[in-house]
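ESCALATION

Customer reports they have been waiting on this structure for their group meeting. Please prioritize. Original submission:
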Amino acid sequence: MYALLIDIGNTSLKIGLASPERLITSYTLPTDTSQSGDSLGLQIAYLLNHAGVSFTGDEGSMRPTACVVSSVVPGMIPLVRHACERYLHLTPLFAHHDLPIPLENHYERPNEVGADRLVGAFGARRLFPNARSVVSVDYGTATNFDCVTGNAYLGGLICPGVMSSLGALATRTAQLPKIALCTHSDAPIMGRSTVTSLNHGFLFGFAAMTEGLYARLTSTLEGPVAFVATGGFAADVARVVNCFDLVRPDLVIEGLRQLWIEAVRGK
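Update from on-call: job pushed to the front of the queue and completed.
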């Protein structure tokens, strides 16, 4: 028994193949609402073939029998639906709508919470079942801190995202170069070039934001509190802070896997 898991974010579309025991492999595509459902379907079929999935019914094939999706991009939903139904013969189930996320949603308007935030928080909750509270920190287009105590999703904080902040700065500042953030230092360096100044300013600036919010949230939430980092910039920040109990770049995919498992067991 295998499942195809798809996390549709504003920047990236992450695809995972999972068994009930673990995530087997994952891939990342750009989120592109201008493509056709056929184009997306062919890409996903190719990636699954690369992962060892056989579409001819071969014995021992890892062919998925379920598809679970989290999306914050409405324009991608019909494309994914078409791709899965035509090329994989799967009917995708969308978190939040087809598969309720088993957390008590305490948002004033529950439908305002992005599915990815809820699925990530749910994944963190399942990874740390003995912690009284968990916080999932997603360094994506925005930096989200999502808080759960017991089985209740309390809400969270939405802060600027690393790459979107850098892009906005480069767009509005004529002499700042566009760079790929990269630094291997464990302490900030006083930059004597623009690239060094940007690299260290962004990494340690976001690290300081993370440490500050960690201190404030752990003093507010019921403890013990587990902090889980995810997103493209998570590993870089986690390297220079002491806040995180776990770094899981695939946290939303893991949350989708857990949703799938619990849905199957509940039948």
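Sent to customer with the following note: The CA atoms of residues 3 and 64 lie 5 Å apart.
Escalation resolved.
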